């Protein structure tokens, strides 16, 4: 009787460990699915491949799944917006600089008159 209970506990423990490993390896896929990741199928397949590669890929899958956010995508849009603002500022400064250069050229092209001596002398 006691050996049957021990065998039942052993089978239960093995099944729980097996299910736990599978459930843990689905975490990156669940994160990707929740975030509507464009590569969620690839992350899911790579999670299964990670089971056979001694879990080497799993941390990278976690990082890959968490990089994407639906509200900002991969995060490059924010960088592009900053670069667009900087480009606009540079264009504005170039226009201002060319206006200053044309004013300077106009001032330099004027004939210079020597300072007139005071008339009372």
TrEMBL record:
<feature type="transmembrane region" description="Helical">
    <location>
        <begin position="6"/>
        <end position="24"/>
    </location>
</feature>
<keyword id="KW-0175">Coiled coil</keyword>
<keyword id="KW-0472">Membrane</keyword>
<feature type="transmembrane region" description="Helical">
    <location>
        <begin position="45"/>
        <end position="65"/>
    </location>
</feature>
<dbReference type="InterPro" id="IPR011223">
    <property type="entry name" value="UCP028770"/>
</dbReference>
<protein>
    <recommendedName>
        <fullName>GTPase</fullName>
    </recommendedName>
</protein>
<keyword id="KW-1133">Transmembrane helix</keyword>
<feature type="coiled-coil region">
    <location>
        <begin position="76"/>
        <end position="110"/>
    </location>
</feature>
<keyword id="KW-0812">Transmembrane</keyword>
<dbReference type="Pfam" id="PF11742">
    <property type="entry name" value="DUF3302"/>
</dbReference>
């Amino acid at each position: 009787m006691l050996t049957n209970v021990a065998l039942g506990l052993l089978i239960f423990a093995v099944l729980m460990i097996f299910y736990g490993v599978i459930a843990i390896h689905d975490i990156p896929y669940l994160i990707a699915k929740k975030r509507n990741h464009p590569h969620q199928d690839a992350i899911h397949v790579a999670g299964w491949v990670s089971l056979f590669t001694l879990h080497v890929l799993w941390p990278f899958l976690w990082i890959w799944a968490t990089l994407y956010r639906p509200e900002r995508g991969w995060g490059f849009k924010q960088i592009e917006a900053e670069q667009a603002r900087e480009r606009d500022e540079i264009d504005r400064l170039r226009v201002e600089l060319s206006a200053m250069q044309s004013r300077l050229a106009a001032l330099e092209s004027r004939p210079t008159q020597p300072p007139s001596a005071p008339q009372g002398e």
